[in-house]
C-alpha cells in the first residue's frame, strides 16, 4: 500500500479516540435535553456544566463566561456582530490577515485594517494610530491559520489599556474591547485570558482533535453582547437552541488534552518543523519560508516555490500520497490569491506559488522525508 502523509492539520484534525469515547453516551443513552426538569436531563445538564467549567479553567475564566457555539465561525460572528450591534455608529479594527469569519462580518460596519509587516505580524504603531475615540472593538487573531505567525496580543492589550485610561480621564464611556480568534492556537499556546488581556476569545474543536462544528466564545462578564440567534434563551440568552451536549463535551475534552500536553507536543512538533524547513532550504535553492521564524506556531511550515503553480503542486503531491494546502481550507475553492500573503507584500505570482504544510500529533520524520522526496520529483 502506498504511503500517505497528512500535512493539513490546520484545516482539520482527526478525532481523538478518548474524546470520541467521552462523547458517545450523549448520542445514545444520555440523549436528554439539558433544559428538561427530570432527573436524567439534570444529569446531562451537570455534565454540560462540567464541560463548561473545564474550558473556563484552561482560559482562566469563570464558567458563565463560556458560550458554546457550533464552531469557530459562529463564535467569531457572535463576537463581531454581538459587540457592533450595540454600538452601530462605532468603529471596528481588524488585522489585515484575519480569517474570513472575521473579515466578512466586519464588512457590515465601519472598519479599518491594521497593516502587517513582511512576517504577517501586526504593526503596533499603526494600530495605536488607528484606535480613535470611535473605536469599540479590535479583532486580531492569536496565530494565523495560513502562515502560522503568532501576534503580539499582550503588547496590543497593553497599548489598549493606555487608551482606556486616557478615555477615563476624559470621561468617555465608549468601551474598547479586544477579540482574539484563537482557533489555531489551542494546541501550542497559552490561552489564559487575563494574562493575555483579552475580552473575547474564540476556540474551535475541529482544530484540536475534537468534533467539527464545536466551539466556544469566551465573553468577559463586563462585555455587553447582543445575540445573533434568538429563541429559547440558552447560553445566557446569547446563543439560543438546544445545546449539542456531545459536541460540547467533546470540545472540553479535546481542549483539556491539548492544553495538558501542550509543552511536550510543542517541543516535539517544533523539532519536526525545523527539520522540515532545513530540508526545504537544502533541497530547493529558491524556496522562501513565509511568516515569522521566531514567533510561529510549532506545526506550521509555509513556503513559496518561485516559478511554480501551487495548484499543480498540490495535485502532484496528492498523487504521491501527500495532503497539503495552498492556504485556508475555507477559501480553497476561490480563485483569488491569499489576502494574507498579499497583505505581507508578496506578489500575486509568488502567492500562487506558495504551499502550507501543517504538522500534527502523529507526524514523523519519515513523513517529512517522503514529502521532500515528492516535492523533489515535482520541482526540477
What secondary-structure arrangement, pairings included, does this model have?
Elements: E1 5-6, H1 17-23, H2 39-59, E2 66-69, H3 72-84, E3 91-95, H4 100-106, E4 111-114, H5 124-130, E5 135-139, H6 153-169, E6 177-181, H7 193-196, E7 200-204, E8 215-219, H8 245-260, H9 262-283, E9 288-289, E10 300-304, H10 310-319, E11 322-323, H11 339-343, H12 348-351, E12 354-358, H13 365-378
Parallel strand pairs: 1-11, 3-4, 3-5, 5-6, 6-7
Antiparallel strand pairs: 2-8, 7-8, 9-10, 10-12
Description:
There is one protein chain. The protein contains 13 helices and 12 strands. The chain has 380 residues and is an alpha/beta fold. It folds into 2 domains: 127 residues, Aspartate Aminotransferase, domain 1 (Alpha-Beta Complex), CATH 3.90.1150; 244 residues, Type I PLP-dependent aspartate aminotransferase-like (Major domain) (Aspartate Aminotransferase, domain 2). The strands form 3 sheets. The protein has a 7-stranded mixed beta sheet, sandwiched between helices. Strand 5, helix 6 and strand 6 form a beta-alpha-beta unit. It is globular, with a radius of gyration of 21 Å. The mean pLDDT is 95.
How would you sum up the global shape? globular
Superfamily (CATH H level) name of the largest domain: Type I PLP-dependent aspartate aminotransferase-like (Major domain)
Quaternary structure of the protein: single chain
CATH topology of the largest domain: Aspartate Aminotransferase, domain 2
Structural Rg: 21 Å
Order of helices and strands: EHHEHEHEHEHEHEEHHEEHEHHEH
* Helical percentage: 25-40%
Strand content: 5-15%
Structural class call reads: alpha/beta
CATH architecture annotation of the largest domain: 3-Layer(aba) Sandwich
Please describe the biggest sheet, giving its number of strands, its sense, and whether it closes into a barrel.
Answer: 7 strands, mixed
Query: So how many helices?
Result: 13
Query: Any idea how many domains?
Result: 2
Amino acid at each position: 500500500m502506498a504511503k500517505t502523509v497528512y500535512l493539513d492539520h490546520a484545516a482539520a484534525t482527526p478525532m481523538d479516540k478518548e474524546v470520541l469515547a467521552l462523547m458517545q453516551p450523549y448520542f445514545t443513552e444520555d440523549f436528554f435535553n439539558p433544559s428538561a426538569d427530570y432527573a436524567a436531563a439534570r444529569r446531562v445538564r451537570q455534565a454540560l456544566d462540567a464541560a463548561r467549567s473545564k474550558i473556563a479553567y484552561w482560559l482562566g475564566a469563570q464558567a458563565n463566561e463560556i458560550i458554546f457555539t457550533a464552531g469557530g465561525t459562529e463564535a467569531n460572528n457572535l463576537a463581531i456582530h454581538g459587540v457592533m450591534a450595540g454600538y452601530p455608529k462605532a468603529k471596528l479594527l481588524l488585522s489585515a490577515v484575519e480569517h474570513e469569519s472575521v473579515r466578512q462580518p466586519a464588512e457590515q460596519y465601519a472598519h479599518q485594517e491594521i497593516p502587517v509587516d513582511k512576517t504577517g505580524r501586526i504593526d503596533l504603531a499603526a494600530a495605536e494610530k488607528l484606535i480613535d475615540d470611535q473605536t469599540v472593538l479590535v479583532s486580531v487573531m492569536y496565530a494565523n491559520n495560513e502562515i502560522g505567525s503568532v501576534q503580539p496580543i499582550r503588547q496590543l492589550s497593553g497599548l489598549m489599556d493606555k487608551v482606556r485610561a486616557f478615555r477615563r480621564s476624559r470621561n468617555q464611556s465608549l468601551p474598547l474591547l479586544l477579540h482574539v480568534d484563537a482557533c489555531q492556537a489551542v494546541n501550542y499556546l497559552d490561552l489564559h485570558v487575563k494574562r493575555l488581556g483579552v475580552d473575547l476569545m474564540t476556540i474551535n474543536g475541529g482544530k484540536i482533535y475534537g468534533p467539527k462544528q464545536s466551539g466556544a466564545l469566551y465573553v468577559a462578564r463586563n462585555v455587553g453582547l447582543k445575540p445573533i440567534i434568538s429563541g429559547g434563551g440558552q447560553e445566557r440568552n446569547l446563543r439560543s437552541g438546544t445545546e449539542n451536549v456531545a459536541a460540547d463535551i467533546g470540545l472540553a475534552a479535546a481542549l483539556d488534552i491539548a492544553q495538558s500536553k501542550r509543552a511536550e507536543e510543542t517541543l516535539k512538533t517544533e523539532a519536526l518543523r525545523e527539520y522540515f524547513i532545513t530540508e526545504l532550504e537544502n533541497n530547493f535553492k529558491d524556496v522562501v519560508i513565509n511568516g515569522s521564524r521566531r514567533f510561529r506556531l510549532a506545526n506550521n511550515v509555509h513556503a513559496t516555490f518561485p516559478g511554480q503553480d501551487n495548484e499543480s503542486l498540490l495535485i502532484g503531491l496528492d498523487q504521491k500520497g501527500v495532503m497539503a494546502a495552498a492556504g485556508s481550507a475555507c477559501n480553497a475553492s476561490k480563485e483569488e490569491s491569499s489576502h494574507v500573503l498579499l497583505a505581507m507584500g508578496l506578489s500575486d505570482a509568488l502567492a500562487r506559488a506558495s504551499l502550507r504544510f501543517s504538522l500534527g500529533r502523529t507526524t514523523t520524520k519519515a513523513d517529512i522525508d517522503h514529502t521532500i522526496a515528492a516535492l523533489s520529483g515535482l520541482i526540477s
